[in-house]
Design brief:
- Helix content is about 55%, strand content about 10%.
- The chain has about 260 residues and is mainly α.
- The chain has 2 domains: about 35-125; about 125-260, no CATH class.
- It has a 3-stranded antiparallel beta sheet. A two-stranded antiparallel ribbon has the order 1-5.
C-alpha cells in the first residue's frame, strides 16, 4: 500500500534529520541518493543557522563551535515544525538543562530563556500603552482595586541564584563578559512597547508584581506580592518604571459600568 501524504511527509522529515527508523523502503531508497544527502545537509545547516540567530547570547557565552555542535544534536531531535524559523527553538532552553556538556555552565539554560523571551517579545502581538496620567488620576483606593494588564509583548523572569540578566545583556550588547559581576540573583524585563525590543533589570518585587498582574489580581494584591518578595520595594519607582518601560497596556477598574480605561 502506498503511504499517505502525511505519512510520506513524516518519513521525509525523519530522514532529513537523521532518524532512519521506520521510514519505509521507498523513503530509505530516496535517502540513499547522493542528491538527498546534499539537500539534507543544507536543511540541517539552515536549521542550525536559525537556532544560532534566535539564541545569539547563548552562542557568544559558549562560543560558536560549541553552540553549533549542541545545535546539531538539538536539530536532529527537534526539527523545525514551521517554515517561520524565527519561532524555532522554543524548547532549546530545556534541552540545555539536560545537555551533559553544559553541566559546568548550568546558567546557560537561563541565558537561553532570556534569548527566547526576546524572540517572543519581538514577534508578539502589538498592544496599547497605558498613559501614566490615567493612573495618576485615580484615587489610591480605586487604584488598589484596579487590575493592571501587562503588555502583550512583555516578558519577565526572576533568577534566584545567578546574575543571568547581566550575563545575557553583556552578550546581547556585545560588551563581553562583565569583569566585576556580582554573583547574585537578578530579574529581567523584556518588552516591545513600539517598534523595537527593549530590556531592563528588575528585582524580585517587580517580578512578583507582574506575576500577580498577569494572573488578573488587582493592584493591591500585586503590591502585597511585591513587598513579600522584596520588602524594600519602592512602590512609586515600581509603578513609574513599568509605565515608562511600556510594560502595562491598560487598567481595568471595577466601577458601575465595569469600564476599561
Amino acid at each position: 500500500m502506498a503511504p499517505s501524504a502525511s505519512g510520506f511527509q513524516d518519513a521525509f522529515i525523519r530522514a532529513l534529520f537523521g532518524d532512519s527508523h521506520d521510514i519505509g523502503r521507498e523513503m530509505a531508497a530516496v535517502a540513499r541518493q547522493p542528491g538527498f544527502a546534499v539537500y539534507r545537509n543544507g536543511v540541517r545547516k539552515h536549521a542550525i543557522d536559525a537556532l544560532q540567530a534566535n539564541y545569539p547570547a547563548v552562542a557568544r557565552v559558549v562560543g560558536e563551535e560549541w553552540f553549533r555542535a549542541a545545535a546539531a544534536i538539538y536539530v536532529r531531535g527537534s526539527p523545525p515544525s514551521s517554515p517561520m524559523l524565527v519561532e524555532y527553538g522554543a524548547s532549546f532552553p530545556r534541552f540545555l538543562e539536560t545537555f551533559e556538556p553544559a553541566a559546568d555552565i548550568a546558567y546557560v539554560a537561563d541565558v537561553a530563556r532570556l534569548d527566547r523571551m526576546w524572540t517572543e517579545a519581538h514577534i508578539g502581538t502589538d498592544d496599547d500603552l497605558l498613559d501614566p496620567a490615567q493612573v495618576a488620576s485615580l484615587a489610591p483606593q480605586t487604584l488598589s482595586q484596579a487590575v493592571l494588564r501587562p503588555h502583550a509583548c512583555a516578558r519577565w523572569a526572576w533568577f534566584e541564584t545567578a546574575p543571568i540578566y547581566s550575563i545575557w545583556a553583556a552578550s546581547r550588547e556585545h560588551a563581553g563578559n562583565p569583569a566585576d559581576i556580582d554573583w547574585r540573583g537578578e530579574g529581567a524585563l523584556i518588552v516591545r512597547p513600539r517598534d523595537r525590543v527593549e530590556w531592563a533589570p528588575i528585582d524580585a518585587g517587580v517580578c512578583a508584581f507582574l506575576d500577580r498582574c498577569a494572573e488578573g489580581a488587582n493592584a493591591g494584591l500585586a503590591v502585597q506580592a511585591a513587598l513579600a518578595a522584596n520588602p524594600d520595594t519602592d512602590l512609586r519607582q515600581l509603578m513609574w518604571g513599568l509605565l515608562s518601560a511600556g510594560a502595562i497596556s491598560r487598567i481595568e477598574r471595577p466601577d458601575e459600568n465595569e469600564r476599561t480605561i
